[in-house]
Amino acid sequence: MEDKLIVIATETNSKALVLKSYLEANGVECFLRSVNVLQGAIAEGVKVLIRESDAEKALKLLSAMHHDEEIKKADQQLRKILVPVDFSEPSQNAARYAVMLASRYNAQIKLLHVFNSPVVDMIPFTDVASIQIDFDMNYHVLYNSAKERLVKFYENLLEFAKQMGFADVQIGYTLREGYAAYGIIEASKRYKPGIIVMGTKGEGYRSTELVGSVAAEVSDETHIPLLVIPEKAVLKGVDEVKKVLYITNFDNNDNVSIRKLLKIVSPFQVELHCIHVTDKSESPGINALMATTREYLTSVTSNVSIKCDIIVGKETDKSVLEYINKNSINLVALTSVKRNLIYKLFNPSLAKRMIYQSDVPVLLFHA
Fold first, then answer.
1. What is the mean pLDDT of residues 94-98?
2. What is the pLDDT of residues 110-155, one digit of tens each?
3. Please, are residues 108 and 80 in contact by the beta-carbon 8 Å criterion?
4. pLDDT value at 358 more than 60
5. Cβ contacts of residue 29 below 8 Å, gap of 6+?
């Protein structure tokens, strides 16, 4: 029976030719249909066809191609680091850590401060013009105050960089008005950083309540890796990052997150730990998934020591913290999944619990 042709993608002519070359170089024969020979470079609607029997292989190749493009894109964007600051000690700690990272990545830093200008004034005005004048005056005062503090923060960071021997690191700053989390998200869309570095306070956390954390909100809304420096973290330098922990739930996004993690820690000689926490003492299915994860890690790493463990415990965060302390982990990484409000109220995410309870930096990837 003749193997029928199926459409694997529809692209512009130039992209279709690139895809055809890629697939055929990997043993999948391709055919193009609806090619515009007069305007080939810009023609749209070019179908890339393959034999049905090659579908599984082609889809795997396309998935690998997409992952490679994501990693290449992340590599290019690692040249930019966004650092939201509120002038607190945790912010200063995070900014200094970002300087040390920037020196390794040959990256530039953008400091961001988002200030909130309250619109409601309780003084009863009868004149609309007076309300506008009062609002403008308040905004002017708040803006100038915020800018003055940001410039001072920036100058202190420049001095720190100079003292540490990182005077070549480029540092800039920007000021935005609005709610902190939304301001950070909007700024990240414009600046397009490869990573966001921010400090966070651990006060006020309760395991069963919804916590209004800027870091947690940013991790929910942005697709950019977020490095959170907890208030308790003691940082002497990025060279102290020797052992990195990735917490897996065997999600479909793990492979992409792991490769991004490896790219981020590539300037350092690290030992990679990968764990999964379960309340089942024996589970062939989980053992098989961890074996698959180990094989994948081995395939994408060459000079990184790998250790994979299945941890049995009913309280995931407690088990993770015990593992961190026992194995002297310097950096925790995990994939954060956005969830609906009701689920958050009764089940705070592991990502949020790690932000508040860990005393080592936490690197979040968005699923």
1. 92
2. 999 998 765 544 445 445 444 455 555 577 788 889 999 999 999 9
3. yes
4. yes
5. 50, 51, 54
How far does CA 168 lie from the centroid of its chain?
Answer: 25
The overall longest dimension of the chain from CA atoms, in Å, is 85
Distance CA 196, CA 225 (A): 6
Task: Give the count of beta carbons closer than 10 Å to the beta carbon of residue 68.
Answer: 11
Q: Which amino acid, 110?
A: K
| Amino acid 251: pLDDT | 79
Q: Is 123 exposed, middle or buried (0-12, 13-18, 19+ CB in 10 A)?
A: exposed
Q: What is the mean pLDDT of residues 172-191?
A: 89
User: Could you count the other beta carbons within 10 Å of the beta carbon of residue 284?
Assistant: 7
Contact call for residues 80 and 196 (beta carbons, < 8 A): no
Among candidate residues 205, 232, 188, 225, the one with its CA nearest the CA of residue 333: 225
Give CA 48 to chain center in angstroms.
33
Q: Alpha-carbon distance 236 to 269, whole Å?
A: 17
The closest alpha carbon to 224, from 250, 199, 198, belongs to 198
| 6 residue type, one letter | I
The domain defined by 239-366 folds into Rossmann fold (3.40.50)
Classified by CATH at the fold level, domain 80-197 comes out as: Rossmann fold (3.40.50)
Tell me the domain boundaries of the chain.
Answer: 5-77, 80-197, 239-366
Tokens for 41, please give them: 């470079």
- Just give the CATH number of 5-77: 3.30.70
Q: Do domains 80-197 and 239-366 have the same CATH topology?
A: yes
Dist. CA 288–CA 284, nearest whole Å: 6
